Amino acid sequence: MSRNKKVEIEEISKCPECGSTHLIQDYERGELVCGDCGLVIDDSYIDHGPEWRAFDPEQRDKRARTGAPMNYALHDKGLSTMIGWKNKDSYGKSIPTRNRAQLYRLRKWQRRIRVGSASERNLASALSELDRISSDMGLSRNVREAAAMVYRRAVEKNLIRGRSIEGVTAAAIYAACRQCGVPRTLDEIANSSRVDRKEIGRTYRFIARELVLKLMPTSPQDYTARFCSKLNLSEDIKSKALEILQQAENKELTSGRGPTGVAAAAIYIASILCGERKTQREVADIAGVTEVTIRNRYKELAEKLDLDIVL
């Protein structure tokens, strides 16, 4: 926008159509609108924002509000450039044959510089594995970025030495799932990664202790919605299962017991009470527990909560 146009907009104090002084500055649409008659006075309105105080170039860069957002799931945070493999310039024209050898060398050196140090190579490998596991498990973007942040903190504190990249990556994903309120079991992560359950658990405990990750224990309610969805159960069963779990929590029946087993037992009881019965085997396969666990938990819940279950 030119300076003259900016001055003209600042000088507008009333609507030229109805004379109203009720003018609305819509920065999302970039419009200056009359609040009474709805006339769009200007359709290229710019939010210049406040003057952010900065005392050095580093502060100025941090407070800049332009540019692409950083993506912590990429080793370079998505801020580096990439020279494409198409032999075309920015206008779409083919690059002359005499310049293609030079372009090939530029691509090669750009690739080497982008992943130069050992730590960058480690991050590139780890975050690629993290993306693969997350995609296989269907995790959202915020969980991936949270896992990437946990891994980056582990690298900064030199916690990777002596441990496999796959193990630390899987442990970071497990921690991120709990941080974001979408917990996954160790068995689920082990099935998607190339690391066994025992190593993931051991690495997670070490990272959580060293990074001082303050994570609350998972509750059976965290798993109920996902298990019901996988079993194709209705919302009535989900609500009934959550009601049973709330009653069990009030009577302290869930403490000291595996949350997945208690959630599976509550879903099994709710399916019987609502007339959409699922077998113990079906529920156990989805929850990743044994039928014996479900049997023990549902008998305990039925007895302590005085539930009338007709098998």
Q: Describe it for me?
A:
- This protein has 311 residues and is mainly alpha-helical.
- The protein folds into three domains: 67 residues, N-terminal domain of TfIIb (Single Sheet), CATH 2.20.25; 93 residues, Cyclin A, domain 1, CATH 1.10.472; 84 residues, Cyclin-like (Cyclin A, domain 1, Orthogonal Bundle), CATH 1.10.472.10.
- The protein is built from 13 helices and three strands, in the order αβββαααααααααααα.
- It has a three-stranded antiparallel sheet with strand order 1-2-3, with no helix packed on it.
- Helix 4 crosses helix 6 and helix 7 packs across helix 8.
- The longest helix is centred in the middle third of the chain and has 20 residues.
- The radius of gyration is 29 Å and the shape is extended.
- The protein starts with a helix and ends in a 7-residue tail after the last helix.
- 25% of the residues are buried.
- The N terminus is likely disordered.
What is the element layout, followed by pairings?
Elements (H helix, E strand, L loop, with lengths): L2 H9 L11 E4 L4 E4 L5 E3 L14 H6 L34 H18 L3 H20 L3 H16 L8 H15 L6 H7 L4 H14 L10 H10 L4 H16 L8 H15 L6 H8 L3 H14 L7
Antiparallel strand pairs: 1-2, 2-3
Helix pairs in contact: 4-5, 4-6, 5-6, 6-8, 7-8, 9-10, 9-11, 10-11, 11-12, 11-13
Strand content: under 5%
By CATH, the topology of the largest domain is Cyclin A, domain 1
Number of strands: 3
Find the CATH superfamily of the largest domain.
Cyclin-like
**Overall tally of domains:** 3
Helix content: 40-55%
Please give the largest β-sheet: 3 strands, antiparallel
Shape: extended
Strand order of the largest sheet: 1-2-3
What's the helix count?
Answer: 13
The ordered string of helix (H) and strand (E) elements is HEEEHHHHHHHHHHHH
